[in-house]
Amino acid sequence: MRKHNLVVVALLGESVLAGIGFLWISWRGLPLEIGTGGIVTNVGLGIFAAAVMVLLNYAVLWWAPPVRVVRDIRCLYRQTFQPLVARVGILELVLIAAAAGIGEEILFRGALQPEVGLIWSSVIFGGLHTSSRETLAFGVWAMFMGYGLGFLAAGTNGLLAPTVAHGVYDAVAIGYLRWGKFGCQ
Fold first, then answer.
1. CA dist., res. 136 & res. 133, Å (int)
2. Which of 106, 81, 40 is nearest to 170 (CA)?
3. What is the mean pLDDT of the chain?
4. What is the mean pLDDT of residues 99-118?
5. Does residue 156 contact residue 35 with C-beta atoms inside 8 Å?
6. What is the reported pTM?
7. Cα Rg, the chain, nearest whole Å
8. 20-24, 106-110, 129-133, 144-148: segment of lowest average pLDDT
9. Residue 69 in 3-state DSSP?
10. If residue 4 lies in a helix (H) or strand (E), which one and from where to where?
């Protein structure tokens, strides 16, 4: 996919998710908060959480033993995700990652989590990252990442920290998908 098309698809798709989230939040009268502790604290917590998630993902891609679930994730990244981001530059990477952080956190942690709880919003988040049997391991991985983001949202009573964490994590993940060299084994 051409980088321009990928950015357009990401911006439109994540805008739809954010729009659905905002409509749900408004309709249900749910709180939409930055988080306790102020902007600097929440940004710092988001960056720290992103660093932990990046290290976990890095460990799976480069250090984990090649058991089936690890191979499935590595192959999905290598065969599907790497070609998608093969031509993105830094600006496109930042736009895609920021859009995902904002759109998905508004919907999943801002609208869905207060309604169905941390566990179910994480399960749904993971399920929507699964499109086939080949992506099941990735969906489970996303479910656990969603749980961490949801835990961060609950712990800070807001969306800024998980939004920052999600965006920074995605930016780094897209970066090592784009420029990293790893195989399926």
1. 5
2. 81
3. 93
4. 98
5. yes
6. 0.93
7. 16
8. 129-133
9. helix
10. helix 3-28
